[in-house]
Amino acid sequence: MTKSKKPKSEIVKFLREIVAIVIGVAITLSASYFITKSNEKRDMHLYLNAIKMELEKNLTDMEEAVEYYRLDVKYAKYLRSTDRKMINKDSLKSYNDTYFTIKEHSFKVNAFEMFKFSGTMRLMKNKELMLAIWDVYDDLTSLKDQSEWLSKAKFEDFRNEISKIVENDFELTEIPMYNYYISGMPDSGLAPYENVINTSKELLSELEKELKIKKIPENESLIPEKNE
Question: Which helix (H) or strand (E) holds 18?
């Protein structure tokens, strides 16, 4: 009887050990899964929060760009709507600070680039929000490229006029930066900026809703703090 019970006892012991190992592995995997999911949610919200802050800064910069281009567009419309021979010198003087001011406007995309290449974007469940983010940043890139082209074209026209003045070949009756404002400034005017400003505001509203689903941990950000 003792000999027959011994193998059974060892089998039971072995099975218990196997069950304990399986349970231990299952617990470890479950814990690892929940930790991974928790970290993924945390990373997702940190990235979205960084994008939100970046868009807020870009929105401010776009509004400043609109104020800058507003006078440029006004001057271009004046030149295009008035016969060249009928342009008033006093009217030209009122635009002195416009045609000789050259600025290039750029917008930040660092947070979006980090999010795009992090691998976290593929985990985003709200696909409509993800597409909206892509669209706004595509538009920001287009605005940046347009601003760069306009500043170069304006500088080139400005340099040509300075050269004429140096060579005493510039008549006082000539219209400052005429070529640039007639053929350089796009007919669309401020519309591209105003459109992106509106879509950015809508996107910021959606991001705020998404971030309220789970509160961002305090004092945590993907954007490094500036050293004093």
Answer: helix 2-81
Encode burial over 187-219: b for 16+ CB neighbours within 10 A, e otherwise: eebbebbeebbeebeebbeebeebeeeeebeee
Please check whether residue 89 lies inside any domain of the structure: yes
pLDDT digits (tens, 9 = 90+) for 144-163: 998 898 889 888 888 887 77
64-118 confidence digits (pLDDT tens): 999 989 888 988 988 888 888 888 888 888 888 888 888 888 899 999 999 988 8
Q: Which residues make Cβ contacts (< 8 Å) with residue 220, sequence separation at least 6?
A: 46
**Residue 143 is assigned to a structural domain of this protein:** yes
Could you tell me if residue 227 is inside a domain? Answer: no
Specify the number of domains making up the chain.
1
Given a cut of 70, whether residue 227 has pLDDT beyond it is no
| Total residues belonging to the chain | 228
Question: Helices in 82-109 by DSSP H: which ranges?
Answer: 89-93, 96-99
- Is residue 10 in a domain? no
Q: Decide if pLDDT at 33 tops 90.
A: no
CA distance linking residue 53 with residue 111, whole number of Å: 9
Domain that holds residue 193: 43-212
| Whole-number Å distance between alpha carbons of 178 and 174 | 8
pLDDT in tens, 160-173: 877 776 566 555 55
d(CA 6, CA 3): 5
